[in-house]
């Protein structure tokens, strides 16, 4: 887990070093800079495999130079294949395997590797650059391109000098609390989409982007439930095993949920020594799952560490949130994620997590909402529109937000998109251009739940969950690995009948039945509280003056496309406890902090 940098702009080495210093938390063990021809390659190393200096980057093999961020989990198998072909190796790192693998197979190496990655390889013989990002966008990849000049980096901060703000991106952020790829907060800087590679020809100063992996049309397997459960269990064991490869201490995050419990249980079983597990607890019992996690830990025999945090502990992390997330990011669970990683770093450098399980195995609350509303959505829209009249809603006692939303939403696809998009709620003018990049979910499956799960994977997983985990972990130089993010698990889950994953409201059915082999069901079958923090209450109490000061007229009037009057109304409703507008207020607060941090005043 590291930070990469590459540019053809003729910066002095000291300036490049200063740029890398702004994100040095990504790789505190070594900073490498190489100038070759008209390029500058930079790398920040967090040493995980082969701690020797021979594995520092940029790494060179014959005519190839690489900077690489991530882990190739199946590198040992690929190395055996390359040794059989006569290649020699000087290190024990996965970086060298990736580099020599590219030498042997070219861009086809992407079909062979299983991992999380963002890398650039410069070929001095052809004067070309080959870059790629992993299938699910676990690792970040930003690039600036203008008139043949470019910069590539793991984070956007080193690319921000003299850049203008992207006003369209501000509207996207206010709509969905993150900025979806390929967009970024500034003009001329983009994210390379997951499952894509980019080729730059320095001879012609042109580049192209191509897709090498994506979700595909769902083909349901003819398989029994017991057979599917066994195959999934075996696959998850392999996914955990290959993520336990490390030359530094490794542990596992453990909440009260199904996913982290299963990952940690498998890790505890296959590990030769007791594993380290880590949980965050809250002094507010409404949000605390630490007691359940401690029960899990006792059963699996892990060395467990629970950190109970107060609101003050969380609030102190707001400056850190703005510092390390680079772009405006308004998922408030980033705050406890930062705290969890700060504690974890005291004991280990690598941690397993359960991220990605909800998407594939239908775990989020909004999936239940879809099921409850599907029968309503099956009614022709004209009839639903008629039934949405208040007098009829009150007559039939249907006047709830959930029912009103279903009656007024034109199509099932719109209903799914409403989960992730506020459809311009805070804006003067609706701007939904970003959704055009995520329309594949409409064609991959006809199943209502699978469609929502696919949009969850393509839109939310990359831009929210993965961004949250990457920045929160790298802020403290921790590498997080999630077995559920293995593309084999994603593909396997989509091939199963929906009833194997979701049946009569029983979410993650197949995962629960596997977990029963490790932990008694009565222990893990408790209500999930999520990884939330009581920000709404803080806004009205201990942070009231802070929020009102940050969200002043001067700031609000600078936000492009913001409906200021509407926002002031919801702010007042929230502060007087007439309604809960936590999410929308938090978005504007985070944006105000970002403006101040990055000098966009």
TrEMBL record:
Keywords: Amino-acid biosynthesis, Asparagine biosynthesis, ATP-binding, Glutamine amidotransferase, Nucleotide-binding. One of its GO terms (biological process) is asparagine biosynthetic process. Signal peptide: none annotated. The record marks 355 as: Important for beta-aspartyl-AMP intermediate formation. Gene3D superfamilies: Glutamine Phosphoribosylpyrophosphate, subunit 1, domain 1, HUPs. SUPFAM superfamilies: Adenine nucleotide alpha hydrolases-like, N-terminal nucleophile aminohydrolases (Ntn hydrolases). One of its GO terms (molecular function) is ATP binding. The active site is at residue 2. It catalyses: L-aspartate + L-glutamine + ATP + H2O = L-asparagine + L-glutamate + AMP + diphosphate + H(+). Transmembrane segments: none annotated. It comes from the Bacteria. Its EC number is 6.3.5.4. Pfam families: Asn_synthase, GATase_7. L-glutamine binds at residue 94. The keyword Amino-acid biosynthesis applies. Residues 2-203 form the Glutamine amidotransferase type-2 domain. One of its GO terms (cellular component) is cytosol. Pathway: Amino-acid biosynthesis; L-asparagine biosynthesis; L-asparagine from L-aspartate (L-Gln route): step 1/1. The keyword Nucleotide-binding applies. ATP binds at residues 280, 353-354. PROSITE patterns: GATASE_TYPE_2 (PS51278). This is asparagine synthase (glutamine-hydrolyzing).
């Amino acid at each position: 887990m590291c930070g990469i940098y590459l540019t053809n702009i003729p910066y002095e080495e000291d300036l490049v070093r200063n740029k890398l210093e702004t994100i040095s938390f990504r790789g505190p063990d070594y900073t490498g800079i190489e100038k070759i021809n008209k390029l500058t390659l930079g790398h920040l190393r967090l040493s995980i495999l082969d701690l020797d200096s021979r594995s520092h980057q940029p790494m060179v093999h014959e005519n190839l130079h690489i900077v690489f961020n991530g882990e190739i989990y199946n590198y040992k198998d690929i190395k055996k294949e390359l040794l059989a072909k006569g290649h020699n190796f000087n290190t024990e790192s996965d970086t060298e395997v990736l580099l020599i693998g590219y030498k042997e197979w070219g861009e086809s190496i992407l079909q062979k590797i299983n991992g999380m990655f963002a890398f650039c390889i410069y070929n001095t013989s052809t004067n070309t650059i080959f870059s790629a990002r992993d299938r699910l966008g676990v690792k970040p990849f930003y690039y600036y391109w203008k008139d043949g000049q470019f910069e590539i980096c793991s984070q956007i901060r080193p690319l921000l000098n003299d850049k203008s703000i992207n006003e369209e991106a501000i509207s996207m952020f206010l709509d969905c609390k993150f900025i979806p790829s390929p967009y970024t907060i500034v003009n001329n800087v983009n994210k390379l989409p997951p499952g894509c590679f980019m080729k730059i020809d320095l001879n012609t100063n042109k580049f192209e982007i191509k897709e090498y992996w994506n979700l595909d049309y769902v083909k349901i397997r003819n398989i029994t439930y017991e057979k599917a459960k066994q195959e999934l269990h075996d696959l998850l064991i392999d996914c955990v095993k290959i993520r336990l490869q490390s030359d530094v201490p490794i542990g596992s995050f453990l909440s009260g949920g199904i996913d982290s419990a299963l990952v940690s249980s498998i890790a505890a079983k296959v590990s030769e020594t007791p594993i380290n597990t880590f949980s965050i607890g809250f002094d507010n019992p409404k949000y605390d799952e630490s007691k359940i996690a401690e029960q899990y830990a006792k059963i699996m025999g892990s060395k467990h560490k629970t950190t109970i945090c107060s609101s003050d502990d969380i609030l102190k992390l707001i400056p850190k949130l703005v510092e390390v997330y680079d772009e405006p990011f308004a998922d408030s669970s980033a705050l406890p994620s930062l705290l969890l990683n700060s504690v974890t770093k005291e004991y280990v450098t690598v941690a397993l997590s359960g991220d990605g399980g909800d998407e594939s195995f239908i775990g989020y609350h909004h999936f239940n909402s879809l099921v409850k509303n599907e029968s309503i959505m099956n009614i022709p829209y004209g009839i639903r529109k008629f039934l949405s009249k208040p007098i009829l809603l009150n007559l039939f006692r249907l006047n709830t937000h959930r029912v009103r939303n279903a009656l007024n939403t034109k199509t099932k696809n719109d209903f799914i998109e409403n989960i992730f998009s506020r459809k311009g709620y805070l804006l003067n003018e609706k701007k939904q251009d970003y959704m055009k990049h995520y329309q594949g979910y409409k064609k991959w499956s006809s199943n209502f739940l699978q469609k929502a799960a696919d949009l969850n994977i393509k839109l939310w997983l990359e831009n929210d969950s993965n961004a949250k985990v990457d920045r929160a972990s790298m802020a403290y130089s921790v590498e997080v690995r999630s077995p559920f993010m293995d593309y084999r698990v994603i593909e396997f889950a989509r091939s199963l009948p929906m009833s194997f994953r979701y049946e009569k409201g029983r979410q993650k059915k197949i995962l629960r039945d596997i977990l029963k082999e490790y932990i008694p069901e009565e222990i893990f079958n408790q209500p999930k509280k999520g990884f939330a923090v009581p920000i709404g209450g803080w806004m009205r109490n201990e942070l009231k003056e802070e929020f009102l000061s940050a969200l002043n007229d001067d700031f609000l009037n600078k936000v492009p496309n913001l409906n200021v009057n509407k926002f002031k109304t919801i702010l007042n409703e929230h502060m007087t406890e007439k309604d809960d507008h936590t999410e929308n207020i938090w978005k504007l607060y985070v944006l105000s902090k970002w403006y101040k941090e990055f000098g966009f005043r």
